[in-house]
Amino acid sequence: MSMGAELHLYGTDCLEAELAARAAATTADAVYVSPYNDPWVMAGQGTVGLELLAARRRGQLDVVLVPVGGGGLIAGIASVLKAADPGIQVVGCQPAVSDVMTRSAASGTIEPELADTDDGRGSTLSDATAGGVEFGSITLQPCLNCVDEWVTVTEVEIAEALVGLLEEQSKLVEGAAACALAAFKRMAPRFAGKCVVVVCCGGNISVASLLRAIELAKPAAVGATEVTGICRRCESDGVQ
């Protein structure tokens, strides 16, 4: 903003904003860069896979869990890992209320985002992965070829993972980052004795989202009332 940029808010989810930005770029002296549907973006996100391969101990890396929205992150990571070692299991993790890529991987084509009223769906703490996927996205094929399993998690599971990480490790992450951790917590018994990596990326969480996570994760906790009270005061003061 300090460099003279103008901020335009459009739509109710990521896909609507992305399509509007793509359209705007065709009528202005601008370049549209997709957050996932771009080969260079996907390649850049694939460097996470290179880091994992470089960091693995004694050559062991068995399972990698990755949060998924449009699929750029997991497509990049999975492509790198499978090229190096096809035996590494890659698991895609999405919120149950916004699981477009999970359903797309099952059908083999980009599926539409379901309305909030369908199947009891609504907003999700994992807002960075929420919304539809651009039709024809290049991320679909790597997701079909390189991702071994898809898991969807509930809002309570996401909240418990987010709040648990804050309590146990003093790390505050956004809902999308907690999505893969939530999946791991449920699947942990399957991974006994294995080297498992959980990709937790992103710390962009609002006070309102943190408040919701605390209320979902600890509805009866003694300290929850005090903490949520602080969050509400911060929110009323305009703290984001």
Automatic annotation (TrEMBL):
Gene3D superfamilies assigned: 3.40.50.1100
Cofactor(s) this protein requires: pyridoxal 5'-phosphate
Superkingdom: Eukaryota
Keyword ATP-binding: no
Pfam family, one: PALP
Keyword Lyase attached: yes
UniProt KW keywords: Lyase, Pyridoxal phosphate
InterPro entries xref list: Ser/Thr_Dehydratase, TrpB-like_PALP, TrpB-like_PALP_sf
SUPFAM superfamilies according to UniProt: Tryptophan synthase beta subunit-like PLP-dependent enzymes
Example GO molecular function: threonine deaminase activity
Name of the protein in its database record: Tryptophan synthase beta chain-like PALP domain-containing protein
